[in-house]
Every structure is written in structure tokens, then in C-alpha cells.
Design goal:
This protein has three helices and two strands; from the N terminus they run αααββ. The protein is mainly α and 132 residues long. Among the domains are: 42 residues; 43 residues. A two-stranded antiparallel ribbon has the order 1-2. Helix 1 crosses helix 2. InterPro entries: BfmA-like_N.
């Protein structure tokens, strides 16, 4: 029995035999009674503001084109953001974090006051703070 409609009475509607046969087979596919199938169909048409005389094709095609245009617009916005914001920011960050090569300082310095030939000619430069 149809839930919510148990106490309602039946009424008759006249259909052509071929239409009634087609509707009954559709009701079986929907796994609902004839009354509930007809009610679902009417609710569908009313909820979607459709008429059986109108074609659904162009409206779906129109929606598809609208969605494609919106997606294209979003892609254009993202590309513009990448060009104007992301790439310059990445370039600045890379230039900031690039390794700065240390200055080449001489490790060995020649002694200027050599009086004896047997002494070492080169020694490491020492900082004045680190001298003993």
C-alpha cells in the first residue's frame, strides 16, 4: 500500500489501452504503484519547472556552455595570478635565499721579515683577537 495515502479512495481515469500498458510497465520498473509513479512524475515536473511539451536538450546544452565559460574564466584568473604574483614572488624568494659565496681570503701569507733561510716562508694569518 502507498504510505500516507492508505485512507484515500480510488478514482478512475480513462487512458488508451497502449498508454495504460506502457505506464504499467514503467511503474513496475520504478517499483512503485501506479498512483505513486504518477505522483512522482508530477512532483518532478513541478519541482524542476518543466513542461512535457518542452525539450530538455537545449537547456542542458546551455548550462554546459555556461559552465565551460565559467571554468575558462577561472583558468584565466589563475594564469594572471601566476604571472603577476606567484612568479615574481618566487623570483624574489630565490634571490634572497641563494647562497652567497664567501669572499676568498688568503689562507697563507708570506712573512716579510725573513732573516734566516731555514724558517718557514708562509704561515696562516691570525686575527688580533685570537693572538696569545
Amino acid at each position: 500500500m502507498d504510505s500516507g495515502y492508505e485512507k484515500e479512495q480510488f478514482t478512475t481515469i480513462s487512458f488508451k489501452h497502449s498508454v495504460a500498458k506502457k505506464f504499467r510497465s514503467f511503474s513496475k520498473k520504478m517499483q512503485a504503484s501506479n498512483s505513486m509513479t504518477l505522483l512522482m512524475m508530477l512532483d518532478f515536473f513541478e519541482a524542476n519547472n518543466l513542461s512535457p511539451n518542452e525539450s530538455i536538450g537545449p537547456t542542458i546544452h546551455t548550462l554546459e556552455n555556461l559552465i565551460k565559460k565559467r571554468v575558462s574564466a577561472v583558468i584565466a584568473i589563475l594564469r594572471d595570478m601566476e604571472k603577476s604574483q606567484t612568479r615574481p614572488t618566487v623570483a624574489m624568494m630565490q634571490s634572497l635565499f641563494q647562497e652567497i659565496e664567501p669572499k676568498n681570503k688568503p689562507l697563507l701569507v708570506e712573512k716579510k721579515n725573513l732573516k734566516e733561510e731555514g724558517k718557514i716562508r708562509f704561515q696562516e694569518k691570525q686575527n688580533r683577537n685570537n693572538e696569545l
